[in-house]
Amino acid sequence: MTAIDLSSPSDSGRNQESGLWPCPPAGPQSGWSEPAALAAGKEQGFRPPLVFAAECDQLRSRLAAVARGEAFLVQGAVSADEFALEFTEAIDVALKTLLQMSSVLSYAMAVPVVRIGRIASSAFETREHRTAAAALNLARGLLRAGYADIALVHEWNRDFVATGSGRRYGPIVSEMGGALRFMAACGVNAAQWGAEFFAGREMPVPDDEGAPRYVGVLGEAHDGAFREEVHQASTHMVWVDRSDSASVELASRVSNPIGVRIGSSTTPDEVLALLEHLDPDRAPGRLTFLAGMGAESVRDVLPDLIGKVAASGALPVWVCDPLCRSAGRLDAACGEVRDFFEVHRELGTHPGGLCLDPTGGSAFLREQLLELAFSVAEMCPGMPRAAADAPAG
Fold first, then answer.
1. Chain-wide mean pLDDT for the chain?
2. Between helices 298-311 and 330-347, what is the axis angle to 10°?
3. What is the DSSP letter of 2?
4. Which of 127, 114, 149, 357 is nearest to 236 (CA)?
């Protein structure tokens, strides 16, 4: 494994011909113009990688299954920066929430769920590289210690539906409990159900973490030859905004799975250009579109985007990233997610996942996330409807 310097301009003819996402300029990037911040970012670049190339490739394989309709993706925050809690407690609560949502959605949709947690992905990583490493290691340790056991996750779901707003989802949890009892009677061991966990974050620009955080390995190309693949070593998946030219260009040069945030103003031409720039080989699992359009725009904007992409032969993952996740806006978020699913159903395409990343970090918001997951479960054929004061099984 070797360090790669991606701060110099790319010599890719495709990139230079398109002119859409020019190479990142040399020198400090946006948000890193202050000398102290720039020096801190470069110092982080000499720390060891948080993830490895093989893990990134494994995530690409899992996302390829999502793109084919064989799995579902759930993204959430597993970051102490999001919660007004002590570090260990914050990671514990966030991971539990992500696992609970995953269990409900996996049961309702009858497919495996791929889990991606945002690990300290704020622009300045205020708690520095060591906190991101600690968060990722703690999450992995908790999974190895028993959090991956579906029976334990089911108990957490029972607690959620025992009181408060979750009570109405008792029939779903009761049905899940029956399935678990049947599995146990058949000798099925689901203790490692949730053991697989991946990390995601915004694409760091060169001056953020420095060249040493990019590592190269040999990979087999489509023609059978071997070529060097470059991976961003601080995360498995990188996310970019379609309008951030530096991040989009830099993401085009790494082999990590890429998530692109799109919104209500995104046009089909923009999406097709992003496909050509970031996924020219049309490889399932390479590109994920995170659609955050607002409940009022999904039906007007999304069908044309999905239709044009499908006609091009590309097979990206489509994820709903509802804009209204703050307290008191659960109804709007549910409406956006419902329209997202219905659009895909009408087009015969796969609603690939949900990005359920809280914006406030309060306990109320975590309850909202679980309620949203149960609401999505209700949309699936064959699932029981919510009922008031129903017992948890």
1. 79
2. 30
3. E
4. 114
Looking at residue 145, the DSSP 8-state letter turns out to be I
Number of C-beta neighbours around residue 55 at 10 A: 17
Compute CA distances 133 → 52, 54, 127, 258, 294, whole Å.
13, 18, 10, 21, 34
Global confidence as pTM: 0.84
Q: How many Å apart are CA 322 and CA 30, to the nearest integer? A: 26
Task: List CB contacts of 364: < 8 A, sequence separation 6 or more.
Answer: 327
Q: How many residues does the chain have?
A: 393
Report whether 264 contacts 291 (CB < 8 A).
no
Q: What is the pLDDT of residue 203?
A: 86
Nearest of 266, 203, 183, 291 to residue 6 by alpha carbon: 203
Per DSSP (E only), the strands in 203-305 are: 214-220, 226-232, 237-241, 258-262, 287-291
331 φ/ψ sector (left φ>0, alpha ψ -120 to 50, else beta) = alpha
Q: Which two tokens stand for residue 81?
A: 């920066």
Grouping H, G, I as helix, E, B as strand and the rest as coil, residue 351 is coil
Instruction: Kindly state the tokens that stand for 79.
Output: 């970051």
* Token pair recorded at residue 253: 């040069």
* Closest to 240 (Cα-Cα) out of 264, 213, 260: 260
The one-letter amino acid code at 133 reads: A
Which has the closest alpha carbon to 98: 22, 54, 153?
Answer: 153
What digits encode the pLDDT tens for the residues 4-45? 445 444 443 333 333 444 444 443 344 433 333 334 444 444
Spatial separation of the C-alpha atoms in residues 125 and 103, rounded to whole Å: 30
What type of residue sits at position 282? R
- Tell me the three state secondary structure of residue 93: helix
Q: In what order do the strands lie in the sheet with 2-3?
A: 2-3, 214-220, 226-232
Q: Which residues contact 68 (CB under 8 A, 6 or more apart)?
A: 284, 315, 350
Show Cβ contacts of residue 275 under 8 Å, excluding neighbours closer than 6 positions: 282, 287, 309, 312, 314, 316
Tokens 């089911």 correspond to 154
Task: Please choose, from the candidates 378, 235, 261, the residue with its C-alpha nearest in 3D space to the C-alpha of residue 318.
Answer: 261
Q: Which residue stretches of the chain have pLDDT < 70?
A: 1-47, 79-85, 120-128, 205-228, 324-329, 357-364, 385-393
